[in-house]
Amino acid sequence: MKLAAGVEYRGTSYAGWQRQHHAVSVQEHVEQALSKVADRRVMTVCAGRTDTGVHAIQQVIHFTTDAIRSPHSWVLGANANLRGDVCLRWAIEVEDGFHARFSALSRTYRYVILNRKYRPSISRGLVTWEHRLLDAEAMAAAGSELTGRHDFTSYRAIACQAKHPVREIRKLEICRTGQFVLIEIQADGFLHHMVRNIAGVLMAIGKGDRKPCWAKEVLEARDRNQGGVTAPPDGLYLIDVEYPEKYRIPAPENAGPIALLA
Prior knowledge:
The chain is α+β, with helices and mostly antiparallel strands. The protein has helices at about 25-40, 70-80, 135-145, 195-205, 215-220, 255-260; strands at about 1-10, 45, 55-65, 85-95, 105-115, 130, 150, 165-175, 180-185, 235-240. It has two domains: about 1-105, Alpha-Beta Plaits (2-Layer Sandwich); about 105-240, 2-Layer Sandwich (Alpha-Beta Plaits), CATH 3.30.70.660. Strands 1, 2, 3, 4, 5, 6, 7, 8, 9 and 10 form a ten-stranded mixed β-sheet that branches. The longest helix has 13 residues, at about 25-40.
């Protein structure tokens, strides 16, 4: 059978999602836990390979197995074998045509900035800290220039291995809630470091170091060297992956860090 599952994790202690030979990954731990439940090796495919230090509220994976277990047993068994900073939220059986990556219609990330004079303690590693007051309205005005289908060469890592730099941002919203400034981006796909590079540009604008028009100027330059500093991974969360309704993938619950930290 083929199953899909939703994975939540705090990425602080991991070198990203993808299994690696030289470092600890989320995928490694999830596969080990599922393999114990199945009593045989389980290999997973994810919706999006998050980077070192990046978190997820709703990472979606799929795997195939001939082990017969109920969805509840997969969740309960995997969580019993996972570290405390990773958990399965749900599991369902899906049709053979489902693919966690290629069936996805869009992905949504949220970047969480703690905007206050003193550094975080309890939320350390879960937010990006900026002590200078950010102008969320200026950031929103700048972000509106990035929506639509564009060549995002200026906003991807130089080492990005994507075959082409064109992506469609369907939603880019910036708002302030108390001490937090939130950047939420939905797109058909993301390039390496794309969200963090966008966040870096928008934060420079929010601090008043650059004018709102700079976001568009960077975009049109199609040159990563014209962009700003890559923002830290601490405040970045994969919060949702959208699929066709026929697959019945559960919607994410409240995107936890805001409810917990606000």
